[in-house]
Amino acid sequence: MDNIDRQIINQLQDGFPVCPAPYQHAAQQLGISEAELLARLQALLADGTLSRFGPLYHAERVGGALTLAAVKVPLERYDEVTDIINAFPEVAHNYQRNHVLNMWFVLATETPAQLQQALADIEQQTGLPVYNMPKINEYFVGLRLEA
Amino acid sequence: MLDARDRQLLAHIQLGLPLCARPYQAIGDAIAMPETEVIERLTRLKHLGLIKRLGVIVKHRPLGYNANAMIVWDIPDALIHALGTQLSRYEFVTLCYQRPRLEAWPYNLYCMIHGKDRATVLAQLAQLDSACQLTDFKREILFSRQCFKQRGALYPRASKQRAYG
């Protein structure tokens, strides 16, 4: 990753133009050609620096349901439980954290009922209680990482 | 707020925008919608906040953000709104939520700090502690050790949306 890649990441985390030729517009602001911007985005996606180039939705407002959940997983069962939980398509991400409550994951579904079903299925398949911590309020921050 | 065409559009672009000179035209061609209508609808969905952001979605670790701390506090209900609002103004606080206290997990304020190393994150937390007077409240710091799966929340597939459209 060089300085131009960093500028692309810093400038295009938000505000990608919605106009007929958006890459050309963004490339002009970055001082590179449209072809170079497209090639660099392709490369950043291919090497895994970017997970996507596209939209981030407000899940609840588009009609979906979202929650943060956690499980206390005995260390000797960690890999097995990871496989069970990650096999659920509803699991958006899953982090191990340094605590007895050690597995933390986000569940996203189309409806609240499906969310409850997925939580129940995870408890049943793992035999472990799931802590369910849906959001009550979000204090707005712009998630933006400087590259 | 969303009609069937909006849903079709959201479902179509959820995995990414086409990388070509006229991406909105390409999207329109795929779902039989004029480019101008794609642009109008996306502009409106952004204004409404249904599309929170449009652009690069980064992974933390390739950018060197290896220290990711979730800090949870038990804050009295009367103070949580003011403190949540105050914490969210710090640039290094990347997410800030109120969540329900559970019997075995009595925390109600959650905030994430993404940093390049633990020492920096802990120094930032100390800054929050003193500026926001947080030291009286019970809290825990949970650093992530490993990320097993990271993708965005997927929007329902187009084929399954008619019931909601």
Can you describe what's shown?
The complex is a heterodimer of chains A (147) and B (165). Chain A has 147 residues and is of the alpha+beta class. Helix content of chain A is 37%, strand content 23%. Chain A has two domains: 3-46, no CATH class; 65-133, Alpha-Beta Plaits. In chain A, helix 2 packs across helix 3 (34-46). The radius of gyration of chain A is 19 Å and the shape is elongated. The mean pLDDT of chain A is 90. Mean pLDDT of chain B is 86; it is low at 156-165. Chain B starts with a helix and ends in a 15-residue tail after the last strand. Chain B folds into two domains: 4-56, Arc Repressor Mutant, subunit A (Orthogonal Bundle); 61-143, Alpha-Beta Plaits, CATH 3.30.70.3460. Chain B is elongated. Classes of the chains: A alpha+beta (147), B alpha+beta (165). Strand 1 (50-57) of chain A pairs antiparallel with strand 1 (51-58) of chain B.
List the main descriptive attributes of the protein structure presented here.
heterodimer; A: 147 residues; alpha+beta; Alpha-Beta Plaits; four-stranded antiparallel sheet; B: 165 residues; Arc Repressor Mutant, subunit A; 2 domains; 36% helix; disordered C terminus
